[in-house]
Amino acid sequence: MTEIDVEVAHAPERLRYEARVGGSVVGFAEYILATDLIVFTHTEVDPAFEGKGVGAAIARFALDDVRDTSQRKVMPLCPFIKGWIGRHPEYISLVKRVPASTAKD
């Protein structure tokens, strides 16, 4: 993997976290906010920057930000964020647990 200088910031007015390289947006993770939940819906990285740690930088920054600045839990609908959390168990406590169904067959 090639090391690059990635800067990640929260862009709440756009409901996403953005990664920048040289001032240009090269990736982002979009979300939807609920009262006690942040739902990550989509993560995208410019193909020229894939495999260079941009997605991981976004995931780590976003999840750290949620943990440090809110009482919200995370629902990772985005496959990238979900997979990243699965590889980093220290973030599993942020994931909203859905109770088992009480519906009868």
Q: Architecture, CATH level 2?
A: 3-Layer(aba) Sandwich
The share of residues in helices is 10-25%
CATH superfamily placement: Gcn5-related N-acetyltransferase (GNAT)
Shape, please? elongated
Provide the structure class: alpha+beta
Strands of the widest sheet, in order across it, are 1-2-3-4-5
Ends: how far apart? 50 Å
Average pLDDT taken over every residue: 92
Report the β-strand fraction as a percent range. Answer: 25-35%
Which parts are unreliable, with pLDDT below 50 for 5 consecutive residues or more?
none
CATH classification class:
Alpha Beta
Number of individual domains: 1
The CATH topology assignment is: Aminopeptidase
Secondary-structure element pattern, one letter each: EEEEHEH
Count of extended strands: 5
Describe the sheet with the most strands.
5 strands, mixed
**What's the gyration radius in Å?**
15 Å
Structural summary, described in words:
The protein has 105 residues and is an alpha+beta fold. It has a single domain, classed as Gcn5-related N-acetyltransferase (GNAT) (Aminopeptidase), CATH 3.40.630.30. The protein is built from two helices and five strands. The chain has a five-stranded mixed beta sheet with strand order 1-2-3-4-5. A hairpin with a 4-residue loop joins strand 1 and strand 2. It is elongated, with a radius of gyration of 15 Å. It starts with 6 loop residues before the first strand and ends in an 18-residue tail after the last helix. The model has no long low-confidence stretch (mean pLDDT 92).
